[in-house]
Design brief:
The protein folds into 2 domains: 99 residues, no CATH class; 176 residues, Growth Hormone, Chain: A, CATH 1.20.1250.10. The longest helix is centred in the last third of the chain and has 33 residues. The protein has 294 residues and is mostly helical. It contains 8 helices and no strands. It is 54% helix and 0% strand. Helix 6 packs antiparallel against helix 7 and helix 6 runs antiparallel to helix 8. InterPro entries: 4_helix_cytokine-like_core, PRF/CT. Keywords: Cytokine, Secreted. Pfam families: PRF (PF06875). Belongs to the IL-6 superfamily. It is found in: Secreted.
Length: 294
């Protein structure tokens, strides 16, 4: 569990970590652990909210800092030389990231103060809108990176599906007629599921491309944002007095992974259906934003 710290102590701990330390943990997600110690960014606590903006001068991985091991605070920052010397963008991250993370982790009001429903909805809507804008790029990059037939112009495989993914079969009229609490719960469950499927897609891409795939980073970013939206939705439900979401359970076996081609198909379906649910979330949260901003 991440300890509760004041803003000054939190900033000091964040600033302590060097680029060398961050790169040492760069690929730790492949172990299969969920890494909840990472300041809650990969697994936001139920009832909290988070909006993760895009940073153009650094990679998303630069935004992760782990609490130091025992005795780590006694050591000074080691010199960075040779091939470990950070690039300009990474130098910027070393300065900007601690304060950017602090702004993300602290609520907009006084420390510990709950957010209003309108604020929670607005935060979730902004994040969902950002996710929607990135989805098209993610899908196109993924298809191009897989080679033919995926990279062929107009590639589509509408009949392909994964039974472990959230359903996309519910007609809009039925979805729109559900109560807000039901739709919030279904949306939260959907994006938790996508966050787990993205991890599988990341592992598939690492195996298929021997760790040299631009898609891995984009999938990692999509997974991080999906988990952030889960926290945002939980905050909305809490502010509305709705029952707290049940504990999230690990994802079971996912089909379509017994060959390179089927692994590529699996990633395609995950991103395609994620796009559907992202569009649905933006529309739904837009309705809630209009409702609670009055």
């Amino acid at each position: 569990m991440v300890p509760a710290l004041g803003p000054h102590a939190l900033t000091a701990r964040l600033a302590h970590h060097s680029i060398k330390t961050r790169h040492r943990h760069r690929h730790s997600w492949r172990s299969g652990a969920d890494h909840t110690p990472w300041l809650g960014l990969l697994s936001p606590p139920v009832g909290t909210s988070m909006f993760l903006p895009s940073f153009t001068h650094c990679s998303w991985r630069c935004l992760l800092f782990r609490w130091p091991d025992a005795g780590a605070m006694e050591n000074t920052r080691p010199p960075v030389t040779g091939r470990e010397r950070p690039r300009d963008g990474e130098r910027q991250c070393a300065v900007i990231a601690p304060f950017g993370l602090l702004a993300l982790l602290l609520p907009p009001l006084s420390l510990g103060a709950p957010m209003s429903t309108a604020e929670s909805v607005n935060q979730a809507y902004n994040l969902a809108l950002d996710m929607q804008m990135q989805t098209s790029t993610l899908l196109q990059t993924y298809l191009q990176d897989q080679g033919r037939p995926f990279s062929n112009p107009g590639f589509s495989f509408p009949t392909l599906s994964l039974e472990t993914l959230p359903s996309t079969d519910m007609p809009f009229e039925i979805w729109h007629g559900l109560e807000d609490g039901v739709r919030l719960s279904l949306t939260q469950e959907a994006f938790w599921s996508f966050s787990q499927h993205f991890r599988i897609a990341m592992v598939d891409q690492h195996i298929l491309h021997h760790g040299d795939s631009i898609v891995e980073d984009q999938l990692w970013e999509a997974r991080l944002k999906a988990k952030g939206l889960v926290g945002n939705l939980a905050a909305i439900m809490t502010s509305l007095g709705l029952p707290s979401p049940a504990a999230n359970t690990p994802l079971g076996p996912v089909p379509l992974g017994d060959s390179a081609y089927r692994k590529k198909c699996r990633g395609y379906v995950i991103i395609r259906d994620y796009s559907f649910w992202t569009d649905r979330a933006v529309t739904f949260l837009g309705e809630l934003k209009a409702k609670y901003s009055q």
